[in-house]
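#lab-general

N.A. 3:47 PM
ok so I finally got the sequence cleaned up, no stray characters, all 395 residues accounted for. can someone with queue access submit it? mine expired

B.Y. 3:52 PM
send it over

N.A. 3:53 PM
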Amino acid sequence: MINPSSSNIDDFSLEKGGPFFRLLVRTRLMGEDFAPVMRRAVFFSLLAWLPLLVLSAIEGAAFGQAVKIPFLYDFPASVRLLLALPLLIAAEGVIDVRIREAVWHFSRSGLVEEKSFPEFGSAVRQALRVRDSFLAEGIMVGVVIFTMVSLRLEFSGSSSTWQILVSPSGGTRTMAGWWHVFVSLPIFQFLTVRWLWRYLIWCWLLWRISRLDLQLIPTHPDRAAGLGFLGEAQVKFGIIVLAFSSVLSCHAGEEILFGGASLAGYKMMILGYVVLVLLVLLAPLFVFSSRLFEVKRRGLLEYGALANQYTRTFHRKWIRGEAPQGEALIGSADIQSLADLGNSFQIIREMRPAPIDLWTTIVPMAAFTVAPFLPLVFTVLPMDEIVYKVFSVLL
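B.Y. 4:20 PM
back already:
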């Protein structure tokens, strides 16, 4: 069998490439295998957060009553830099492993026919070229710079914070505020935009693969004709969602605790956000839907014809008494074959329109999205009251 270019397929990586990756490798903040993740996460988090603490403390805006919002009371800023940012970094290795396994599985499982190997290899090579594009990361830097300039010119609010000191003559940005604008936010924004670009590359590659003449089997036990592994790989992008959800949850919590908002007022926002996330994460898998519908339709016809032929023979043999003399029905392989055929037909009928499963795909994605919002319940019900109600129900 002719194999696709192993240098492209076996070594495919969504993350190992591009100017930023090579810069991290050269500065020894990252190895070729993404290690050490902890060192890199701590480095960028401290680079973004620690100077803010030191500078705001020097200016008397870290805590106390000097400004309306001291730095240590600005929970969204700390969560963004101490939790969400490390999650964006830690996700690199986790997601890359699963995506590489998924691409490898296409070529080694027989899903891609030998005649389609050249086109499959071409799609993978194009994805790698786009991943390594200097232009793409240059545009990302440009977006971050544009945002940075916009924030520099933007002054909002009438009260002083750890970022901006407001006086009758106008607002003046603090040293901590300048570091936040020129260092902290750009790091977070660049990693965010970079992840968005990598995700778009993966979506495009899935679309290209869906155009190939794949060997999809309607009786595959995963109820997705052999594509069920894609749903499990897609779930890993939930780590990125977890990072964003943490920041959004903290903003909502701040408004509830200090802004007079209520949790009930955020119900529709949270629901809409969950729906949006599920649409973004699940939509790429629906590129295979037309193929799966066709495989199911054809499978029902083919296995239906096989079932007609076999059950007709079974009926003549065992119902009409045409079985050879002395052959017993009990223990006959005919019964087991009939049951196996019925199971196969049932699997085809239960085929899903996309490689998506409720418990292994949708529920984990929803959990990544919703989990950071659960602590907001404590803004409505005190912890002791929750514990009391739980124990009163259980006991």
